[in-house]
């Protein structure tokens, strides 16, 4: 019996090149402003139109400021990229969700919430965190700019088929442990290259119990384990989330779609190239301490000694982060806290953050950026009154965008400052030149924002 990955992949094969790649049909292409301009220029140079324009959706997110979005963007590079995407989308007849449009936000947040990302689809974008959409039961992965052009021109892509891996996690997550902690734990266990060449299927009772938002977070971080992508078989959680969404099927088409989606699972006798199993009880709230997402510990643990293999890069990371082996991170002073990104910018993340800070007050020593992943999330925050809770605790909500996940807009962490961030990468300078990043869950970020130091969120729950 085939794996679910095989089922979706095989259904989308147009042709197999002998001793070469597969020509794979793509159901949905997402474009943002950073990786699309050269693709549009290439199309123009060849005098081509987009083959299936209705399958392509564009929106700016990386360069968008998270304040005063109704005014012209001050940074000339950002302004040019955002304006160029709008012009290109208009010229090629593509759907474009521009800044200040109610449909705008981070592309990997908007796709699922509009029902554009559906089970059984193949989905690509010129962005590594496209793996997020795998939470819907889709085969979703990031591609390069030349491949973006390939999809625009033909709605197909040439790809080598990855190997399959199943990661099974069973058991109930402990108090204060979130899907973000699960992902950070997996990265530390298998390293940031442990899934290279594989597509991961997440399974087990822990994964099944996760909300849609939690699954999106887990799949988002697959790429940080080196995987080509990660996904979860669709089930009632998926169907309940999608029902009634703008682009989801309606009426009879819905019933037919669900009947098909229910077949999207790996068989009992499916054979994977690699199988790994983990126990939810072994996971506590996590924090990173180095300069890749795999350098992480349980929040109560001490920093490990230098490994015999890779000592030089370990010491370089410690030096950059101003930490040393054997120290605990609990009680370390924090300068910035960032809630947001395509990893943790959804409504559930804001609920968790608000729940922990309710009745408390932000530390005066912390600069906090709370950035919804989309205008739809922003709307829900206000409808649920979370904005009032956050305001009372001394926080303000910014406008949607990728924000401080990466230093491509105004939200840059200054050199030397330490940020606790719910984003996906802690590379050197990722959040601003010289900035230092600790990746954590929304609960751990909230605890740090209140106390001004790294704090075990379980103490405040």
Automatic annotation (TrEMBL):
Gene3D superfamilies (alphabetical): Aconitase, domain 3
InterPro entries referenced in this protein's UniProt entry, alphabetically: 3-IsopropMal_deHydase_lsu, Acnase/IPM_dHydase_lsu_aba_1/3, Acoase/IPM_deHydtase_lsu_aba, Aconitase_4Fe-4S_BS, Aconitase_4Fe-4S_dom, IPM_dehydratase_rel_enz, IPMI_cat
Recorded coiled-coil stretches: none
Reactions catalysed according to its record: (2R,3S)-3-isopropylmalate = (2S)-2-isopropylmalate
Cofactor: [4Fe-4S] cluster
Enzyme class: lyase
Protein name (Swiss-Prot/TrEMBL): 3-isopropylmalate dehydratase
Species assigned in the record: Xylanibacter ruminicola
High-level lineage: Bacteria, Pseudomonadati, Bacteroidota, Bacteroidia, Bacteroidales
């Amino acid at each position: 019996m085939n794996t679910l990955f095989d089922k979706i992949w095989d259904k989308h094969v147009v042709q197999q090149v002998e001793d070469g790649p597969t020509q794979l049909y793509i159901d949905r292409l997402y474009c943002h402003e950073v990786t699309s301009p050269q693709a549009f220029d290439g199309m123009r140079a060849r005098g081509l139109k987009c083959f299936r324009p209705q399958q392509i959706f564009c929106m700016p997110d990386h360069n968008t400021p998270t304040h005063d979005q109704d005014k012209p963007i001050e940074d000339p590079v950002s302004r040019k990229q955002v304006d160029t995407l709008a012009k290109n989308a208009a010229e090629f007849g593509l759907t474009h969700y521009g800044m200040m449009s109610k449909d705008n936000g981070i592309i990997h947040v908007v796709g699922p919430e509009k029902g554009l990302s559906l089970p059984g689809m193949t989905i690509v974008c010129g962005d590594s965190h496209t793996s997020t959409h795998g939470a819907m039961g889709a085969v979703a992965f990031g591609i390069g700019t030349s491949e973006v052009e390939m999809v625009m021109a033909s709605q197909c892509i040439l790809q080598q088929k990855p190997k399959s891996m199943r990661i099974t996690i069973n058991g109930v997550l402990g108090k204060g442990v979130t899907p973000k902690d699960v992902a950070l734990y997996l990265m530390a266990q298998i390293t940031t290259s442990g899934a290279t060449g594989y597509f991961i299927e997440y399974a087990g009772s822990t994964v099944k119990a996760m909300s849609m938002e939690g699954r999106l977070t887990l799949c988002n971080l697959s790429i940080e384990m080196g995987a080509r992508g990660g996904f979860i078989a669709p089930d009632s959680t998926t169907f309940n989330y999608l029902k009634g969404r703008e682009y989801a099927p309606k009426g009879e088409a819905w019933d037919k779609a669900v009947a098909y989606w229910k077949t999207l699972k790996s068989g009992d006798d499916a054979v994977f190239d690699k199988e790994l199993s983990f126990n939810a009880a072994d996971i506590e709230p996590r924090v990173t301490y180095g300069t890749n997402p795999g350098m992480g510990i349980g929040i109560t643990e001490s920093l490990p000694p230098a490994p015999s293999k890779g000592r030089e890069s370990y010491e370089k990371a410690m030096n950059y982060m101003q930490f040393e082996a054997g120290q605990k991170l609990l009680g370390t002073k924090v300068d910035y806290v960032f809630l947001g990104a395509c990893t943790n910018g959804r409504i559930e993340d804001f609920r968790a953050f608000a729940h922990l800070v309710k009745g408390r007050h932000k530390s005066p020593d912390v600069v906090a950026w709370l950035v919804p992943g989309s205008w739809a999330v922003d709307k829900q925050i206000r409808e649920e009154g979370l904005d009032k809770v956050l305001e009372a605790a001394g926080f303000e909500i910014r406008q949607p965008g990728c924000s401080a996940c990466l230093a491509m807009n105004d939200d840059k962490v200054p050199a030397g400052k330490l940020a606790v961030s719910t984003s996906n990468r802690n590379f050197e300078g990722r959040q601003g030149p010289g900035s230092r990043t600790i990746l954590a869950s929304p609960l751990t970020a909230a605890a740090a924002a209140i106390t001004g130091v790294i704090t075990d969120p379980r103490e405040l729950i």
